[in-house]
């Protein structure tokens, strides 16, 4: 008894310690936040993954997929969903309880009995139980309803794992697009810096040249003011390109999972030429997007989860049947058998709960239909995104071709000006204007070319794939053709329903035309009713109607 009391005391003390240690106030949270701020700030310095290396686009994408913290969070949530699925699978196991009861009394558990009939003689006191009794019991219980619910919960947990996987895939696709956008911003800014560094230094010396020309009387004060303003405006525009480099570096380093402080160097050879992409037909790309986009998979999975909810409600409408079996050992010396097995079946039916589960099943069934409509709506939105992305790709390419022509024209004019320029400060001033304008058109061409790369990757993001190749397109096309054959009956039924609606709408439109004509006849004056040409009324030709009007008069 002493040992049992000590054991109970230890368990109670442990429970109290856990309860007290789990309590936190705002001061504790503030201290934790301060420690995390220091750890995260210092820890970001140790995530430097590059040291003066020029990164290619492929290397940046791979580094982001491996080290981006948001993507790592999604992957950890995948693992959480898998653990919860395992927990739901273990929930299908039957209930197994092991109990060990010990009791002691301060006096003998004695009782007496009275004989029924034959004078009602009273027997003396007797004892059938020891003062110290120990019962050891093992119970095994299996509830049919609990097993069915655990089975459906396991399937739903597996569906949630699939949903997490699709969210991770979509997050990876969006991360790739963000990396491409930041990468070409850095690349274009790098080239802009190389183009403008020398020009900006020369422009600063041109202000003194303009002042000297004004003092010599070669240009009037008004032109001197205009020339100075033109140089200042160009210098501002070119300086903004240089300033954008730091912002692009911060964004790209953050996407790669590194500290945002510092610069990054990327390979800008991509901006030396215009790539040619071979895209399939726009309708095929729409079908591929409807097949590959993770958002559509999520809606389909959520629909199946709701279907399982309906089935769970149906299971709850059945009687709760529980199968019980247990083994018992008793230390009571007065018993004839100290060990015994028991087997039992218990059935309970809560009839008043049936309407509740019926209504819940009906509600979840409507939710299934809502998910079907949501899937269709999302499919329409996905097709629209593909169309918009394709139009943006075409427009960006056309814009690049225009910018390239403008830049070539400026470059040709600059080359011609250099060959024909005369010596003198005024000629040098005009030549500098042409040089700055040509540099500006070159930077605009580079920016548009970078946007063209981004537009292509946005196209891939809208479709939901990582690359477009003839092999991948052929494989996806084969899958779509197989799916079309499987859905041939449903497609034929939908086509017939569509034709029926078209026919019905056409009949209604004709009926409405007849009603309008009858109203026209009714509204004719009574004096002219006898001379109305009814054939001309039903003729929609204006000339015939005018002729009928003349005949009537």
Write the layout of secondary structure elements.
Elements: H1 2-21, H2 26-45, E1 54-55, H3 57-67, H4 69-90, E2 95-104, E3 110-111, E4 126-127, E5 132-143, H5 144-216, H6 221-255, E6 265-266, H7 282-292, H8 294-316, E7 320-330, E8 339-348, H9 354-420, H10 425-463, H11 470-486, H12 488-522, H13 534-538, H14 542-552
Parallel strand pairs: 1-6
Antiparallel strand pairs: 2-5, 3-4, 5-7, 7-8
Highest-level CATH class of the largest domain? Mainly Alpha
Mean pLDDT: 82
What value does the Rg take, in angstroms? 42 Å
* Major sheet summary line: 4 strands, antiparallel
Low-confidence stretches: 524-553
Supply the helix-strand structural class.
alpha+beta
Q: Helical residue percent?
A: over 70%
* Succession of helices and strands: HHEHHEEEEHHEHHEEHHHHHH
CATH level-4 homologous superfamily of the largest domain? Outer membrane efflux proteins (OEP)
CATH topology of the largest domain: Outer membrane efflux proteins (OEP)
Question: In angstroms, what separates the terminal alpha carbons?
Answer: 124 Å
How many β strands by DSSP? 8
Spatial strand order of the main sheet: 2-5-7-8
The number of distinct structural domains comes to 3
Sheet-strand content, in percent, reads 5-15%
What's the total helix number?
14
**CATH architecture classification name of the largest domain:** Up-down Bundle
Net shape: elongated
């Amino acid at each position: 008894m002493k040992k049992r009391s000590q054991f109970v005391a230890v368990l109670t003390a442990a429970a109290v310690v856990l309860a007290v240690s789990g309590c936190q106030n705002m001061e504790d949270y503030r201290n934790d936040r301060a420690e995390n701020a220091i750890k995260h700030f210092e820890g970001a310095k140790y995530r430097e993954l590059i040291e003066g290396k020029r990164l290619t686009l492929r290397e940046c994408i791979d580094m982001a997929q491996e080290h981006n913290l948001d993507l790592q969070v999604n992957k950890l949530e995948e693992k959480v969903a898998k653990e919860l699925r395992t927990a739901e699978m273990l929930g299908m196991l039957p209930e197994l309880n092991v109990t060990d009861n010990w009791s002691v009394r301060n006096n003998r558990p004695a009782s007496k009995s009275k004989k029924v009939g034959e004078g009602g003689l009273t027997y003396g006191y007797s004892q059938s139980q020891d003062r110290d009794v120990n019962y050891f019991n093992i119970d095994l219980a299996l509830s049919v309803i609990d097993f069915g619910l655990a089975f459906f919960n396991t399937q739903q947990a597996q569906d949630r794992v699939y949903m997490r996987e699709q969210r991770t895939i979509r997050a990876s696709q969006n991360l790739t697009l963000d990396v491409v956008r930041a990468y070409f911003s850095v690349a274009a800014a790098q080239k802009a810096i190389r183009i403008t560094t020398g020009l900006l230094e020369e422009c600063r010396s041109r202000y003194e040249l303009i002042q000297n020309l004004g003092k010599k009387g070669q240009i009037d004060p008004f032109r001197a003011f205009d020339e100075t303003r033109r140089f200042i405006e160009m210098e501002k525009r070119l300086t903004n390109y240089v300033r954008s480099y730091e912002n692009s570096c911060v964004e790209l380093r953050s996407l790669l999972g590194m500290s945002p402080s510092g610069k990054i160097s990327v390979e800008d050879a991509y901006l030396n030429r215009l790539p040619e992409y071979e895209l399939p037909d726009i309708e095929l790309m729409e079908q591929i997007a409807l097949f590959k986009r993770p958002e559509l998979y999520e809606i389909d999975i959520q629909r199946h989860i709701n279907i399982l909810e309906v089935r769970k409600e149906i299971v709850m409408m059945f009687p709760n049947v529980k199968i019980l079996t247990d083994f018992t050992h008793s230390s009571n010396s007065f018993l004839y058998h100290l060990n015994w097995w028991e087997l039992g079946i218990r059935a309970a039916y809560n009839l008043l709960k049936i309407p509740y589960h019926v209504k819940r099943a009906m509600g979840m069934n409507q939710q299934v239909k809502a998910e079907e409509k949501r899937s269709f709506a999302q499919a329409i939105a996905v097709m629209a995104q593909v169309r918009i992305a394709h139009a943006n790709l075409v427009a960006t390419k056309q814009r690049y071709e225009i910018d390239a022509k403008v830049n070539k024209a400026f470059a040709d004019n600059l080359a011609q000006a250099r060959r024909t320029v005369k010596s003198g400060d005024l000629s040098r001033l005009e030549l500098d204007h042409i040089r700055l304008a040509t540099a500006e058109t070159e930077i605009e061409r580079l920016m548009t070319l970078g946007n063209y790369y981004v537009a292509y990757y946005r196209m891939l993001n809208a479709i939901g794939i990582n690359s477009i190749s003839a092999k991948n397109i052929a494989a996806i096309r084969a899958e779509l053709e197989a799916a079309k054959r499987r859905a041939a009956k449903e497609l034929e039924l939908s086509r017939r329903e569509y034709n029926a609606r078209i026919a019905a709408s056409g009949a209604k439109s004709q009926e409405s035309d007849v009603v309008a004509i009858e109203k026209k006849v009714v509204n004719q004056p009574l004096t002219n009713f006898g001379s109305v040409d009814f054939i001309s009324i039903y003729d929609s030709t204006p000339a015939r109607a005018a002729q009928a009007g003349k005949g009537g008069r």
